Amino acid sequence: MLPKNRPPTHPGEMLLEEFLKPLGVSQKEFAVHLGWTYARLNEIIHGKRGVSADSALAFGEALNTGPDFWLNLQKNWDLWHSMQTHEKIPPLKKVG
Q1: Cβ contacts of residue 67 below 8 Å, gap of 6+?
Q2: Is the pLDDT of residue 3 over 80?
Q3: Cα–Cα distance between 93 and 44 in angstroms, integer?
Q4: I want to staple 12 with a disulfide (CB 3.0 to 4.6 A). Which of 41, 45, 77, 94 is the partner?
Q5: What is the pLDDT of residues 33-60, one digit of tens each?
Q6: In this predicted structure, what is the pLDDT of residue 96?
Q7: From CA 59, how far away is CA 56, in angstroms rounded?
């Protein structure tokens, strides 16, 4: 369910605050563990890049969460932001 009065938590913020910090793992250490550049991980953590299916698989395997957790966070983030500017479209009426 999407929050009404605030944006949902970005998956990058969730990654940093709920996983990396409690585990005592730095962004650099996690990037090395994933075989990624620091920049790629840092962009996700700071909300400048979204979580792709590939990223979700990597996070899910590394953190024992499964990819759906990360994809759902990203979906909620994207949907909430799209809803802020979306203009409603009337339902299509059956012709004939």
Answers
A1: 53, 56, 57, 59, 60
A2: no
A3: 41
A4: 45
A5: 999 999 999 999 999 999 999 999 999 9
A6: 66
A7: 5
Q: How many residues are there in the chain?
A: 96
Torsion of CA 28, 29, 30, 36, to 10 degrees: 60
Q: Are 11 and 74 in contact (CB under 8 A)?
A: yes
Taking each helix axis as running N to C, give the angle between helix 27-34 and helix 53-63, from 0 to 180 degrees, rounded to the nearest 10: 110
d(CA 71, CA 40): 17
Distances (CA, A) of 56 to 2, 64, 94: 20, 11, 40
Cα–Cα distance, 86 to 81 (Å, whole number): 9
50: its two tokens: 């979204």
